[in-house]
């Protein structure tokens, strides 16, 4: 429970486990067929690397990754005993061997045989167990670098809360920062050990989630006497877009969160996720990296020309850097081509009365701070192109809610607005292809939440395809 906070790390672990089994398949295949390669293994492999075998290999890799996920082997930080882990690895490798049966079943030669499968299974089990033991050592040593520091709030202040607090502090490889404890009127027991960490009562939770960067809320309240308080906590977390965790329970009403049982660790929990989190996120990240790299390579001459034009036409740097709110309200430095005078942020306070947008956002259609070249860059959205570097750094995605500056976020008055920070911000989004600045703030937020709730790779592709004509038309640009 306390050592698997990074979903991408879990997905990477599943993929690495599957890759190990695939390498074992190749190694066993070569070893079994050494007698059939009088002219060398290289020539033998060259004859066997066909499109059919490549397709079968891809199927086996995908099936193996799925098996390791199903049997709970997607966490590189091992908290179970070695024997339990060996049993799980054996089950996963057996399923992988079933997928490997595709090779002898479709082989027209003796290259793939039952001997190949009989050798594959034990070697795969040993290789995967050794790999996971090595992962334990590596992750325990470099946990903070690999997983990052996660901030949690614990709801409850009784013995369960203290036990959880002690478990987190005692964990050698745990990268968790406890922001504090939230008490409840019905369960007002407060241990002396955690009294100095109390940050408020349950009614204050929404405010905490709005103003602080919180990755998870851990609920330690007893279900029999604090059902209403637990339900209130889950509802608040759903509204704010923050994941909640509770000791095994499935009796609560969930409007948005998606329960997922996590049996590993010292205290089994049910994760109540507010966003989709599965293997498709790896595909999304791969598309982000490939798309950003391709765009930067193709647009490099244009980027240099725009940067030079900005420097020539107005004093100040070519690239404007501003702190924006990203995933889970973590701040990052966002890059844009400068479209305003160099002291534009200083001048903004004097222009607040001219704001044309209802709500926290700030927009002026004829902003006096915008330069003549800046008008062109904004109309064509060329000013956003440096954010491709943010995409490469993993701070943004090609598709996602637009990142907001600190000024706008500080004016949010409802926790529901914070749910847009439960996914990475993006270069383009539903708002971008549905009117941009012609859309009022309320509809803007609703479109962001619609994207989060209905996300799919197909929706991302649709938005990307719609972005091109929208940008070319300049519709809604300010």
């Amino acid at each position: 429970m306390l050592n698997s906070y990074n979903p991408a790390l879990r997905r990477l672990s599943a993929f690495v486990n599957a890759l190990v089994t695939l390498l074992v398949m190749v190694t066993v295949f070569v070893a079994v067929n050494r007698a059939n390669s009088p002219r060398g293994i290289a020539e033998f492999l060259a004859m066997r690397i066909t499109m059919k075998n490549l397709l079968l290999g891809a199927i086996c890799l995908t099936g193996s990754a799925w098996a390791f996920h199903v049997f709970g082997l997607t966490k590189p930080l091992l908290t179970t005993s070695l024997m339990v882990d060996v049993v799980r690895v054996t089950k996963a490798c057996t399923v992988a061997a079933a997928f490997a049966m595709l090779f002898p079943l479709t082989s027209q030669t003796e290259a793939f045989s039952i001997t190949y499968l009989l050798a594959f299974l034990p070697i795969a089990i040993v290789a995967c167990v050794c790999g996971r033991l090595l992962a334990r050592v590596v992750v325990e040593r470099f946990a903070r670098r690999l997983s990052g520091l996660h901030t949690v709030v614990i709801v409850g202040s009784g013995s369960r809360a203290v036990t959880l607090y002690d478990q987190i502090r005692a964990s050698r490889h745990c990268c968790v920062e406890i922001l504090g404890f939230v008490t409840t009127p019905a369960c007002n027991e407060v241990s002396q050990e955690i009294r100095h960490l109390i940050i408020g009562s349950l009614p204050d939770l929404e405010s905490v989630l709005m103003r602080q960067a919180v990755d998870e809320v851990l609920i330690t309240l007893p279900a029999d006497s604090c059902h209403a308080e637990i339900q209130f906590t889950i509802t608040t977390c759903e509204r704010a877009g923050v994941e909640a965790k509770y000791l095994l329970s499935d009796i609560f009403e969930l409007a948005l969160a998606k329960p997922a049982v996590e049996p590993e660790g010292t205290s089994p929990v049910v994760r109540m996720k507010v966003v989709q989190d599965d293997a498709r996120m790896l595909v999304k990240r791969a598309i982000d990296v490939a798309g950003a790299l391709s765009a930067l390579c193709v647009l490099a001459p244009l980027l240099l020309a725009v940067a030079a034009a900005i420097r020539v036409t107005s004093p100040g740097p070519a690239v404007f850097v501003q702190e924006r709110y990203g995933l889970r309200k973590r701040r990052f430095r966002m890059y844009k081509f400068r479209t305003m005078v160099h002291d534009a942020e200083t001048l903004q306070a004097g222009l607040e009365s001219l704001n044309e947008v209802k709500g926290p956002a700030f927009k002026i259609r004829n902003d006096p701070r915008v330069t003549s070249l800046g008008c062109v860059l904004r109309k064509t959205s060329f000013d956003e192109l440096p954010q491709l570097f943010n995409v490469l750094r993993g701070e943004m995605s090609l598709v996602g809610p637009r990142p907001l500056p600190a000024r706008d976020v500080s004016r949010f008055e409802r926790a529901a607005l914070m749910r847009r920070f439960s996914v990475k911000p993006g270069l383009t989004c539903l708002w971008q292809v549905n009117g941009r600045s012609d859309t009022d703030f309320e509809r803007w937020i609703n479109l962001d939440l619609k994207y989060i709730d209905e996300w799919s790779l197909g929706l991302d592709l649709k938005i990307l395809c719609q972005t091109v004509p929208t940008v070319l038309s300049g519709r809604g640009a300010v």
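The chain has three domains: 7-143, 149-273, 280-473. The chain is about 50% helix and 10% strand.
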